Amino acid sequence: MKRLVIVMTVAALALAGCGGEAVVPQGQGAHGHDASSAAPPAAGARFNDTDVVFVQMMVDHLQLGISLSQVALSKATSQEAKDLAGAIDVTQREELDMLKSWLKLWDKPEGDGASLHAAHGGEPLLDAAVIDDTKNQSGAEFDATFLNLMAGHQGSAVEMALKEQKEGSNPEATAYAERVVTTRQGQVQQMLKIISQS
Fold first, then answer.
1. Distance (Å, rounded) from C-alpha 191 to C-alpha 84?
2. Which is more confidently placed, 16 or 82?
3. Which residue intervals define the domain DUF305 in the entry (predicted)?
4. In angstroms, rounded to a whole number, what is the distance separating the alpha carbons of residues 182 and 173?
5. Are the C-beta atoms of 105 and 42 separated by less than 8 Å?
6. Minimal CA–CA distance to 81: which of 13, 34, 133, 140?
7. What is the mean predicted confidence (pLDDT) over 100-112?
8. Does the pLDDT of residue 11 top 70, yes or no?
9. Torsion of CA 57, 60, 61, 64, to 10 degrees
10. Is 156 exposed, middle or buried (0-12, 13-18, 19+ CB in 10 A)?
11. Among the ranges given (41-50, 76-85, 89-98), the one the predictor scored with the smallest mean pLDDT
12. For 94, which of 33, 35, 67, 138 is 20 to 30 Å away at the CA?
């Protein structure tokens, strides 16, 4: 119950002052085009520590989101939850490839997710153990858990992206952060709507 309250609080903060945007349909990239239609943007060589930490944390964040989405694709019962999981899976795989290429260009490691989060405020809302726990659920219980966990997870991405927008120096990274804020706020809004109607 405590985790649920935290998740919904983060989700609410992520939505503050924003109308959001509809989630990207399955099979499309983050800009609404087919994921294979264009190569991801390459990051410039100018960057600071904030850019590196943001990208490293987002790599871990995206991998966890993909893992939870994969579980939802096999276990979710509502079509809305399945569609959402599919859209997140497709878009975040594209973003993950892009961010890994940036770290390689910058000659920076991907980093350890748990250590990164511990250094910046504590444990993430979502981790491998939490994802494993969802595999024991089914039906409406699983759908509700998935939506709540993913809402909090995407809300956390908004918080990280807002910091990058303020303190980052790499133009591509800050542009990506802006995209994260817009798309994740839209996803959180959509998930909260589904939750409220269930």
1. 8
2. 82
3. 51-193
4. 14
5. yes
6. 140
7. 92
8. no
9. -170
10. buried
11. 41-50
12. 138
Burial bucket for residue 122 (CB in 10 Å: 0-12, 13-18, 19+): exposed
- What phi and psi values does residue 28 have, to the nearest 5 degrees? -115, 155
Long-range pairs for 33-42: beta carbons < 8 A, 24 or more residues apart: 35/90, 35/91, 35/93, 35/94, 40/94, 40/95, 40/97, 40/98, 40/101, 41/98, 41/172, 41/175, 42/101, 42/102, 42/105, 42/172
Looking at residue 118, its pLDDT comes to 55
Count of beta carbons in the 10 Å neighbourhood of residue 110: 15
Chain-centre distance for alpha carbon 37: 22
CA–CA gap between residue 113 and residue 83 (Å, rounded):
27
Domains of the chain plus CATH, in order, are: 45-197 (1.20.1260.10)
What is the pLDDT of the chain when averaged over all its residues? 82
DSSP secondary structure code for residue 119 in this structure: T
Residues whose CB is less than 8 angstroms from the CB of residue 112 and which lie 6 or more positions away in sequence, other chains included:
none
Q: What angle do CA 84, 190, 28 make, to 5 degrees?
A: 40
Assess contact for 124 and 156: CB atoms under 8 A.
Answer: yes
